[in-house]
Amino acid sequence: MANTVTETVALYNVPDSAGSVGNAANGNKFASISLLSNETLFLDLAYPIVLTDTNDSIQATTTTASKVTVQVLGDKDA
Questions:
Q1: Dihedral angle of Cα 51, 7, 69, 65, to the nearest 10 degrees
Q2: What are the phi and psi torsion angles at 70 (to 5°)?
Q3: Per-residue pLDDT tens over the stretch 15-53
């Protein structure tokens, strides 16, 4: 079911926490975006985000659970 209200999406670059997946917090937020109903956004960053340790992660929160799809694309170094 499509959403009919504006959603606020926040994106976080979350480092691992003692070998486990860490938690999103204001200190690691790198974007906060308001999206209208049925809007698509492609976010191209001016700097790379590098996940170096096991359990480093990109996390997202949104106003309403299950109403926004976030897809992360990137490269993997050999």
A1: 90
A2: -115, 130
A3: 999 889 999 999 999 999 999 988 899 998 888 898 988
Cα dist from 47 to 16, 30, 44, 50, whole Å: 20, 11, 9, 9
| Cα dist from 24 to 3, 4, 5, 45, whole Å | 24, 26, 24, 19
Q: In what order do the strands lie in the sheet with 7-14?
A: 29-35, 7-14, 57-62
Query: What is the pTM (predicted TM-score) of this model?
Result: 0.86
As a whole number of angstroms, the distance between CA 2 and CA 38 comes to: 7
Cα angle value 43/69/32 (rounded, 5°): 45
Surface-to-core class of residue 55, CB atoms within 10 Å of its CB (0-12 exposed, 13-18 middle, 19+ buried) = middle
Q: Token pair of 64, please?
A: 């309403």
